[in-house]
Amino acid sequence: MKALVYHGPNTKSWDEVPDPVLIEVGDAIVRVDTTTICGTDLHILKGDVPAVTQGRILGHEGVGTVVQVGSAVRNHAVGDRVIISCISSCGACTYCRSGNPSHCLADEGAVGIGWILGHLIDGTQAEMVRIPFADSSLYRLPEHVSDEAALLLSDIFPTGFEIGVQYGQVKPGDTVAVVGAGPVGLAVIATAGLYGAAQIVAIDLDENRLDLAKQVGATHCVNSGAADWKQQVLDLTDGYGVDVAVEAVGVPATFQMCTELVRAGGHVANVGVHGKPVQLELQDLWIKNISISMGLVNTTTLAMLLKLVAQQKLPVEKFVTHRFAFDEVIKAYETFGNAAETHALKVLLSR
Predict the structure, then answer these.
(1) Torsion sign across C-alpha atoms 273, 169, 244, 189
(2) What is the pLDDT of residue 48?
(3) For residues 1 and 4, what is the distance between their CA atoms, to the nearest angstrom?
(4) What phi, psi does 337 have (nearest 5°)?
(5) How far is CA 18 from CA 34, 127, 128, 129, 272, in A?
(6) Measured between alpha carbons, how far is 16 from 39 in angstroms, rounded to an integer?
(7) Chain-wide mean pLDDT for the chain?
(8) Which residues, other chains included, contact 107 with Cβ-Cβ below 8 Å and sequence gap of 6+?
(9) Rounded distance between C-alpha atoms, residue 33 and residue 326, angstroms
(10) How is 37-85 classified by DSSP, letter by letter?
(11) Where are the alpha helices (DSSP H) in 280-328?
């Protein structure tokens, strides 16, 4: 089969590699029909994730068709269309049973790490992929849900909803500011209304992304390049600050923005993946009674979000901006990696 293989920092290629095989009785082999590229893949290619070794097949999102199952698999059969969760769950360890499979203690990949596809084992940017713990890591698709819609449930929608909305403790009537209108930030914007947010403020430098934010659920948009960006947000809250500020970029400046926007007694939910230390101004923040949360997605809400997508309750059709064939994966990476020029949001790779 063909697959996108990592050969060290800044080096990748679409190679011929051996087909995956069943290793454990709970495994499934899935033919990948649709996959995508994540910002985390770009971090890997820069060499920012040293656990990813040369020869690794990248990718942790996908929709496909089951072609083989191990003898212990009960919930899936050959021919099933499935969503591949970006988090693998053994379903039995203390973390999986407590709703935190992102820290699954199974020894597949590494103990305590649920994100293994395209990281610690071969991933989904390939014609086929082996999925450990198939019963608890795959989700069967209703016939009328398209691959394109389902693909967004592998990672970005559960990430935005769980780490942004749920961890941020959004409540009915809240004003929520989302700093960063990239794919995950837009997923926060699209799902904050599920918990009754009255105002959802998208903050970004890119006017194209702010326009899209308005289409998926933002009630207000603020360009952070404006001199009065902070005052624009405060004016929406009578000067008190927002109830929930969601950081969805992953750089120190945007986290600082969130701490400046949140009201006393409010919540800062960090969703972005940070590669550098962030200074926390505790001498100013301690007296504000704010809460700060962060985390790696668990995908425990994937099945619920799939029900909403099946009933066309989430604007998933707005997220895919570019489409490619599998053998155009290098071009797809170039397009996604130059999003400022291409206006790429999610790029779709299909058979």
Answers:
(1) positive
(2) 87
(3) 10
(4) -70, -15
(5) 20, 11, 10, 11, 35
(6) 25
(7) 97
(8) none
(9) 9
(10) --HHHHHHHTT--TTSPTTPBP---EEEEEEEE-TT--S--TT-EEEEP
(11) 282-285, 302-310
Q: What is the pLDDT of residues 27-75, one digit of tens each?
A: 999 999 999 999 999 989 999 899 999 999 999 999 999 999 999 999 9
Calpha distance 307→62 (Å, rounded):
18
Averaged over 245-269, what is the pLDDT?
97
> Of 147, 158, 220, which Cα lies nearest the Cα of 183?
158
CB contact at 8 A, 261 and 245? yes
By CB atoms closer than 10 A (0-12, 13-18, 19+), residue 292 is middle
Helix 207-216 and helix 183-192, axial crossing angle in degrees, nearest 10: 30
- What DSSP element (H or E) covers 259? helix 252-261
Q: Which amino acid is at 68?
A: Q
Please choose, from the candidates 73, 107, 74, 83, the residue with its C-alpha nearest in 3D space to the C-alpha of residue 93.
107
Q: How far apart are CA 23 and CA 37, in angstroms?
A: 26
If DSSP codes are grouped into helix, strand and coil, which group holds residue 163? helix
pLDDT at 275 over 90: no
Helix (H), strand (E) counts: the chain: 13, 15
Q: Which three-class secondary structure string do you get for 242-293?
A: EEEEEECCCCHHHHHHHHHHEEEEEEEEECCCCCCCCCCCHHHHHHHCCEEE
How many other CB atoms are found less than 10 A from the CB of residue 88? Answer: 30
Could you give the CA distance from residue 80 to residue 60 in angstroms, rounded to a whole number?
19
Distance CA 41, CA 22 (A): 25
Question: Would you say how long the chain is, in residues?
Answer: 351
Q: For residue 254, what are the contacts with CB-CB under 8 A and spacing of at least 6?
A: 179, 180, 247, 248, 272
Three-class SS of 208-234: HHHHHHHHHCCCEEEECCCCCHHHHHH
What's the rounded Cα separation, in Å, for the pair 210 and 23? 46
